[in-house]
Automatic annotation (TrEMBL):
It comes from Methylophaga frappieri (strain ATCC BAA-2434 / DSM 25690 / JAM7). Pfam families: Plug, TonB_dep_Rec_b-barrel. SUPFAM superfamilies: Porins. This is TonB-dependent receptor. Residues 59-163 form the TonB-dependent receptor plug domain. It comes from the Bacteria. One of its GO terms (cellular component) is cell outer membrane. It is found in: Cell outer membrane. Keywords: Cell outer membrane, Membrane, Receptor, Signal, TonB box, Transmembrane, Transmembrane beta strand, Transport. Residues 1-31 form the signal peptide. Residues 370-805 form the TonB-dependent receptor-like beta-barrel domain. Belongs to the TonB-dependent receptor family. It is a multi-pass membrane protein.
């Protein structure tokens, strides 16, 4: 598909949005009428500039591609890369604490997509997934983002939904000296906190040696410290459905988070002569979270319905940790043209890491006795109803403390080259291109854990374990009464009084450690041919993968070292066609084949066999292969305008899912055997529609109006098996409807934008094959954002932004929308910024 634009699709209240925008436009128009003398003419920037640049790039692309572009003051339309991408057709994001994090393309889960920065693959800092959390990437470091949905043979084949390409700032994106500086303050309504942010970029072009304007240097930075949080209530799906819906337990959670995000980029471009150029791209991004999570829960003696009561075991918990994720990327490359030949090459190094030093992974305080007459209200938000004794810290004592530290690193090194030759084919322009790539990836995880319990045997008196010895005020919780907060420093002081070696958890520490190596060698050839109104690209890519995993298993109390190897190759043909119906209209079609390796969680070599229960990864999993068909049309409507429609179909073999093998094969005598397996086949099909337009032909002030809308309608079919039976499911993570609507207005001084993003519900987690009622689904979401900016002078701009105006929540349900698995509120966020730019 070939659509873009910072837009979002609304599902409700269009009339309210229109009235709001109309009022704002009328106010600005009136101001223009009464005081036109003070208006200055500035360079054309803003929403229309972003849209126009993106459309020009995707129009020229050989692939079906959607692009979002920074404007001439170096700003993407959102705070991080993930949130900017969600404006594109077929793209949605998964949220973390109300902020866009992982990107889903055409309804396919984030781990089924690939992310590159300046042409080199980006590893994941998290231990279990391949998905790259794009909220770690500040938008100020990015010049453009694109999602390629039909891969040509010269691209890495490891994506089913699409490949996200991140391009950082180049000095040659501007003429001469450019700089911008911005300061921002944001306010989160949920925690009533204000947070600072600062960013900037500078670039210039120099003449060195005998060349003229042949060296470009660009640098960018961004820093933000954000205080925010959320209120949560969740059951984890602990419902009994045998005789009506009865709840077994519920838990209230309060999150307090300080998130520090820092990014640096330094890029060099050198043009040795008219036919030779070199570049160096560097990027460093750090994402640091300090999180305190308080929990308060009840396990009912008998499962009950809303409004019913029972005795119950009460508990309170604390989690306190600091986690730092880093991504660094270095890419050096060049291109040289010799006659009809073009040689290009690139060396890339990327490293991602996640470091969580010693922290309280869980401090649990249990009620000294059962609490009577406890209940809950509402099956959707099952907050606790209890007497005063449940809120008295004297009635709880410290039961267990989990103390952990973890370090994950993921490193990729690659070398690639491409050689192309232009030639004449019976009077038509043509090009043959071939090349190869060598990639070496290493991912390792090191977890150490301690479990402190039985404190009386370690010289700690019962009086020292009462919750009243660890409290620090009350938790600020917006959904219900909560009770006392737990002091992390008080818990740490207690742990210092006992011997850590006596509490070391060898099982948890060894089973979760692993080292994985994934070596990929690839080669391809492709031919491009221009035949009158046709452009045809045909080619073949070959990828050989050698995978090795080392770890530790535990079998009935005995540790076992494990080492597994798996190798395979994939032949991946492709055919692209583009037909020009006219100067502004083109039809695109593509048949592509792609391959995606399973997640690291699924491939993990560790296992635990304990009697008749087992859990283990599966390093022998096959990769997922997909044959893809795309067909569509796009028509360009002058500057900043386009309309398009694309249909797509994906036939996926060997998709991966979690399953329980108990009762089958070697696990006939087991009650539980949780692992991962390859399914047979799955299908995904859908339609993407997109329209964007600047209404420049309308009379003033309406000639400043911009409209963008896109919608993706898709479906999927898959079959899983286990326990001697099968059932049909949708692919996890696949939303059937995704859309955006953006209504904007701008002139030389003012820019306004009201946008809505919608994503329908999707299957999040599959329960046991015979327990469909406990499948977990994420409910649909609609987010409404508003932004406005005003040029005080030609080079000074003030901006306001309001995010999540409707206070949309995150809701996961069990089988039916009525039954909670997780509910979370974040509140709206308001931002005010000042930007000074020279361009």
């Amino acid at each position: 598909m070939s659509r873009f634009t910072p837009t979002q699709l609304p599902q409700f209240k269009l009339s309210l949005l229109a009235v709001t925008l109309s009022s704002a436009i009328s106010h600005v128009a009136f101001a223009d009428e009464v005081d036109p003398v003070h208006l200055e003419t500035v360079k054309v920037i803003g929403q229309a500039a972003q849209i126009d640049k993106a459309l020009r790039e995707q129009r020229q692309s050989d692939s079906i591609e959607s692009i979002v572009h920074a404007d001439d003051i170096g700003q993407l339309p959102d705070d991080n890369a993930a949130e900017a991408l969600q404006r594109l057709p077929g793209v949605s994001v998964e949220l973390d604490q109300g902020e866009g994090r992982f990107v889903s393309v055409r309804g396919l889960a984030p781990e089924l997509n690939n992310v590159t920065i300046n042409g080199t693959n980006v590893p994941s800092p998290e231990s279990d997934t391949r998905a790259v959390a794009l909220d770690i990437l500040p938008s100020e470091l990015v010049q453009s983002l694109s999602v390629v949905k039909t891969l040509t043979p010269d691209m890495d084949a490891n994506s089913l939904g699409g490949t996200v390409n991140v391009k950082s700032l180049s000095a040659f994106d501007h003429d001469g000296l450019f700089y911008t500086m911005s300061a921002e303050g944001s306010y989160n309504d949920n925690v009533n906190e204000t947070s600072p942010k600062g960013s900037g970029a500078v670039s210039n072009i120099f003449s060195v040696g005998n060349g003229e304007n042949n060296l470009g240097v660009a640098a960018a930075f961004s820093w933000q410290e954000r205080d925010f949080g959320s209120d949560n209530v969740e059951t984890g799906g602990a419902w009994e459905f045998d005789s009506g819906a009865k709840l077994e337990e519920t838990e209230q959670r309060d999150y307090e988070i300080t998130r520090e995000r820092m990014g640096l980029g330094l890029n060099f471009d050198y043009k040795a002569d008219a036919n030779t150029g070199y570049y160096l791209r560097t990027l460093f991004s750090r994402f640091k979270d300090s999180e305190i999570r308080h929990a308060s829960g009840i396990e009912f003696g008998d499962a009950i319905g809303a409004g019913e009561s029972s005795d119950g075991e009460g508990y309170r918990e604390l989690k306190s940790r600091e986690e730092t994720q880093e991504i660094q990327s270095y890419v050096f490359g060049g291109e040289k043209t010799i006659g009809l030949w073009t040689l290009s090459g690139q060396a890339g190094f990327s490293r991602a890491s996640e470091d969580t030093p010693l922290h309280i992974a869980g401090a649990s305080f249990a009620g000294d006795s059962d609490f009577s007459n406890v209940s809950f209200r509402s099956s959707r938000k099952p907050t606790i109803l209890a007497g005063a004794d449940f809120y008295n810290p004297a009635n709880f004592s410290l039961d267990e403390v989990e103390w952990e530290k973890q370090k994950t690193t993921d490193t990729e090194k690659n070398l690639k080259f491409d050689l192309a030759r232009d030639y004449d084919f019976k009077g038509y322009g043509a090009q043959i291109k071939f090349g190869g790539k060598v990639s070496r990836r290493k991912k390792d995880n090191d977890l150490e854990a301690w479990v402190y319990e039985d404190f009386d045997s370690q010289g700690i008196a019962d009086a020292d374990l009462a919750l009243s010895e660890f409290t620090s005020g009350n938790v600020d919780y917006g959904l219900n009464r909560f009770g006392p907060a737990i002091s992390d420093s008080a818990v740490e002081a207690l742990l210092a009084r006992v011997n850590a070696d006596d509490n070391y958890d060898e099982e948890e520490s060894q089973i979760n450690d692993f080292e994985m190596h994934e070596d990929i060698n690839a080669a391809y050839f492709m031919n491009t041919l221009d035949l009158d109104d046709w452009t045809l690209i045909a080619g073949l890519r070959y990828e050989y993968t050698d995978f090795e995993a080392e770890g530790t298993g535990l079998r009935d109390g005995d540790f076992e070292a494990i080492k597994r190897n798996n190798s395979y190759d994939n032949w991946l043909p492709g055919l692209h066609a583009r037909y020009y119906l006219g100067d502004d209209t083109q039809i695109r079609a593509a048949w592509t084949n792609t391959v995606v390796r399973p997640t690291f969680e699924a491939l993990a070599p560790g296992f635990v066999f304990d009697g008749d229960e087992a859990s283990f990864g599966n390093p022998d999993l096959k990769p997922m292969e997909s044959s893809n068909l795309d067909l569509g049309i796009e028509h360009y409507l002058g500057r900043s305008g386009a309309i398009s429609a694309f249909a797509f179909y994906k036939d996926i073999n060997d998709f991966v899912y979690n399953t329980d093998l108990a009762g089958t094969g070697a696990f006939t005598a087991f009650d539980e055997a949780n692992t991962y397996a390859n399914g047979d086949s799955a299908k995904v099909y859908g339609l993407e529609l997109a329209y964007t337009q600047k209404m420049s032909w309308l009379p003033a002030p309406w000639n400043g109006l911009l409209v963008g809308v896109n919608a993706t309608f898709s479906d999927s079919e898959a079959e899983i098996e286990g326990l001697g039976t099968t059932r049909d499911i949708a692919l996890p993570g696949q939303s059937k409807r995704v859309g955006n609507l953006m209504v904007g207005w701008e002139n030389d001084k003012v820019s306004l934008r009201l946008s809505t993003n919608y994503k329908s519900s999707y299957l999040s987690e599959v329960a046991a094959i015979d327990d469909k009622e406990h499948d977990l689904y994420v409910d649909d979401q609609t987010f409404v954002d508003f932004s406005a900016s005003y040029f005080l002078t030609k080079n000074a701009q003030i901006s306001f932004e309001a995010k999540n105006l409707t206070d949309e929540s995150y809701y996961v349900y069990t089988g039916s929308e009525r039954y909670n698995a997780q509910y979370e509120e974040y509140g709206p966020t308001y931002k005010l910024s000042f930007t000074l730019t020279n361009f």
